[in-house]
Amino acid sequence: MAKRVVVITGSSRGIGRGLAAEFLRRNCEVVVSGRTEQSVAKGLETLHTQVPGCDPRVRGVACEVTEPRQVQRLWDASCEAFGRVDIWINNAGIVGETPTVPVVKMSAEDLRKIVDVNLTGSLYGSKVALAGMQAQGSGQLYNFEGFGSNGKMFRTGLTPYGATKVAIRYLSRALAKEVADTSIVVGTINPGIVVTDLLLAPYRDKPKQFAEARRIFNILADRVEDVTPFIVDGVMRKQPHIEWLPAWKVMGRFAMAPFRKRELFAGIEL
Q: Which of 42, 96, 241, 257 has its CA at 20 to 30 Å from residue 173's CA atom?
């Protein structure tokens, strides 16, 4: 069976890089991307350490997802390297420069960046990937959901981020209908709460706020290496919706919290 070719945006670090490592362990060919050549080089260096011998099966391409020409170049470079793209994952996302304050205190520039990266970037990635997959006759496209995707959770500071994630859910379901009569799969990935820079960034230099959040995170959050095998299993099985932390699991974790002590942040400095 031919190796599957996987492209992951925003994969020079965090859960994106974790997914890249897991796909490489499954003998896939993987293209990682980040905003700059430097971030991509650093991501590749880490992957070579995490997955020894992966060098022939991994490439890196710098890509600013808010620039449609660069997104197209990411597709073209991936096809040039490996012949096709079987799986495209729109993972790139940001919470913004001031993710703990109300919208009225956020700058217009910060609001624009959040929407551009999280939503517009996913639109560009979806457009490019679906056009390429329609031309080659098959493929899988996944968009990343996140906090607020279900339209039922609200938190000050994450209003613009959550709004983009609600839009991502609509986008993905609408795109799935657009390609319903083809062999292309369009789906979503909801990784739950994962210990990455994206999670920790709002608490830099805010020890009191982090101390309050830490208790909940130790109940509900998970490490990258715990979540990524589950996600990759779902992608490899072509599941349309992959959710690591559904409501029943959340309730179970709270029920078990008094009896199950977890500490995910030992050795992590903010």
A: 96
